[in-house]
Amino acid sequence: MVHVPSLWMPILLAAALAFVASSVIHMVLGYHRKDFGGVTDEDGLMDALRGFGIPPGDYSFPHAGSKEVMGSEELREKWTRGPTGFMTLLPSRDLVRPGVGDDRPQRVRQPRLRTAHGWRLRLAVARLTGGSAQVDVT
After folding, report:
1. All residues at 6 or more sequence positions from 42 whose CB lies less than 8 Å from its CB, including other chains
2. What is the pTM of this model?
């Protein structure tokens, strides 16, 4: 009979190797390189979208907000006339220095999250050590 704790190292090693192998394959072979295309007048499109003041989020156009609108002739005309699509707007950020304006440190400091992560850590340590180790998470 094989004990579960003796399998943790091979499981973690296999996961790490799978991650590294998939990363190398995707970088070398270039999968997903052509998944997204650019628009002709990118600057004009970005200026136009910026002018609307749309907050970050996922959007569809034309958008049917209810069942009544879904069957309307007006929506059918919008679909026929086009363009149609889905759009995800992300918050503006500095790609050269991605840590600038990052809110992760504030989220980690929240007591609720620390407590949740602390309990998960305590549970994991208790399971791995058979309850013999004590962990203090502050």
Report:
1. none
2. 0.49
